[in-house]
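ok posting inputs for the histidyl-adenosine monophosphate job
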Amino acid sequence: MSDKFLPTNSYIGTRDFYPDDMRVRNWFFAKMRKVVESFGYEEMLGPILEPFDVFAAKSGEEIVNEQVYHFTDRGERHMAIRPEMTPTVARMVAAKSGEIRYPVRWYSIANFMRYERPQKGRLREFWQLNVDLLGESGLEYDYEILSVMVNLVKEFGADETMFKVKINNRRFYNDVMREVVNATPDEMKVISKAVDKRSKLPRDKYEEWLKDSGIPGAKIDRLEEVFGMSLSGLAGKLTGDSQGAKELTDLFGLIDKTGLAPYCEFDFSIVRGLEYYTGNIFEVYDLDPENRRALFGGGRYDNLIGLFKKAEVSGIGFGFGDVTFQNFLETHMLIPSDIHENNGVLITVFDDVDYSEYIRLSDELRVSGIKNTIYFGGNKKMGRQFQYAESMGIKFAIVMGGNELSEGKVIVKDMTTREQTEIKRAKFLEDFRKIFR
Ligand code: HAM
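and the output
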């Protein structure tokens, strides 16, 4: 018979969230909401399905060819389960581009699916906080997004020894590749993929990969030199005016005058996998070598709205994933130990009291905002009921047996200190509030 049971495990690369897991996730998303709302961002949401073309246009080869879950619906439409939020944000802004007030400050918390090989920091279903600022392009926009990013991580007690925002620029990257490395457009595609592998592969394997992909040795050497150079050093090697170099230099000029300076650095190896980025791009890294993947990332996209409508709207934003962030919080021990405490009440029950008395107590507590449950279970021994309260992390147990009821009183037991306090049934709520914290 047993071979007829269905498996209980969730689909590969997805997670079941039991209450203990939800508690952690809800806790960090609530903190994130608080931070982004303090910057004036408003929550939005789009559908989980979009036409495949919405992603095919600009999300980049890897996502579109290897990672998107797609299917034909019953009406013969080619649909995709969203692998990311940005094209939906662009579509929604485009749909109301005439009437919307700019700048648009939007955020969302949603789940996404990508057909990934599940590994540390990478799953098939994950959640992201997306934060996007749309309107014009300009230094103040880029700075604000970076400031939201840094303040989000700091909100959890992290400091500059724990994470770093690494910044580059798509235009600058292309200019350096063309002028300094002398890479052809085809070579640039190969190099961009390799750059992403550079921090994850041993050096000889990385060079072998580049050689096997047809990059000449001299260009590999030049590339290494480039990675070792500062922003001003690299910018100095460019002959003409580089808009990308200016965007980066201006941004660092402002950062260096503010409190963001210790958290940010230039890093030429940041390329970002998504195709639509056009200007400054960034990724946030955990400084603990345990977690090598980007915690989160984003950048400026000038032309995404243009997929849907003729409109001059530029955007900048980032996607902050829950998987890598939870690894970060655990590694740096930033999850509070009392997160699983259940600040509630258990109403214990006795056979010699009419059950409606407990319902009344429970209703009184609930209506006044105190969460509580009535003990259910065949074995009503006092010890068993207290054990249950402890196993659920419940802070207070209320005892009202036949004797207490006839004497018009209730006993409140603090499960952590074991202290017992007698209060009058008639003044129950008023006196309980003095004990309950
Ligand atoms: P992304 O770099 O593809 O960017 O993803 C952003 C973050 O989402 C990653 O840094 C990581 O935290 C998380 N993430 C991505 N894929 C996975 C996965 N398979 N498993 C677990 N976590 C994952 C974007 O998605 C852009 N749309 C972000 C953006 C918003 N750019 C502008 N606005």
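notes: The two ends are 51 Å apart (CA to CA). The chain has a mean pLDDT of 94.
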